[in-house]
Amino acid sequence: MLFYIALVGSKVYPDLFVKFKSLLREGTLLVDAYGQTETLGPVVKGLPGTPVGSCGRAYDTYILKLINPDTGDEITKPNIPGELIVKGPSLSEYYNDPEETAKLFTEDGFYRTGDLLYKDENDYFYFVDRIKTLIKCRNYQILPVELEEVIRNHEDVSDVCVVGIEDREDGQRPVACVVRRKNCVTAQEIKQLVAEKLSKHKALSGGVIFLNEFPMTSTGKVARKTLI
């Protein structure tokens, strides 16, 4: 008997995926799926052989494109994040609200997901983050997930969430909210870790905040807006 488990709702880090898979019985198919309420289900499918970290390839019944969220130009080169837009047979609308519905669709009928993904050379899609979580610091757009992946590698970090704090000069500054395992790592060590791994404009100029736990939404996601 084949058991099938799909992980949905938020980004699944590769190390967490591997750890979870190791706990499952032999023969269980574990996939990282992607879809939205508005698409009435998944638009990409994870199958055996899908790379860890990928949510799979597009279903044949959907047309998927990646566009530059600033210019609207289509992204055709691999490994470049862009907003995923979708056209297919199962897309929902806002009930009795044509104006809000119109904002969700392009002129040629593609649904704007508001999510950043990229596609590799073999047409596998990878979820990056929600566009609205982007931190705009000076003239740069910073992906919180990029900083989070670096900080998560520290052995004393149990969980991390990077958000933007408003700043009069820079627009926003990235702040790392961290849950520690043993309360050993310091704020300076985390700042230094990011400085060593990433470019200068991605530095934690907003600082580091230590929390005992993260506030969660009713759907089990980190309530980013209430962190700071």
Automatic annotation (TrEMBL):
AMP-dependent synthetase/ligase domain span: 6-95
Key words, A-Z: Ligase, Peroxisome
Ligase as UniProt keyword: yes
Localisation: Peroxisome
InterPro entries referenced in this protein's UniProt entry, alphabetically: AMP-bd_C (IPR025110), AMP-bd_C_sf (IPR045851), AMP-dep_synth/lig_dom (IPR000873), ANL_N_sf (IPR042099)
One cellular-component annotation, GO: peroxisome
Xref: Gene3D superfamilies: 3.30.300.30, N-terminal domain of ligase-like
MF GO annotations: CoA-ligase activity
Major subcellular site: other
Pfam families in UniProt: AMP-binding, AMP-binding_C
Every AMP-binding enzyme C-terminal domain range: 146-221
Family under the similarity heading: Belongs to the ATP-dependent AMP-binding enzyme family.
PANTHER family: AMP-BINDING DOMAIN-CONTAINING PROTEIN-RELATED, LONG-CHAIN-FATTY-ACID--COA LIGASE
Protein name: Luciferin 4-monooxygenase
UniProt organism field: Pieris macdunnoughi
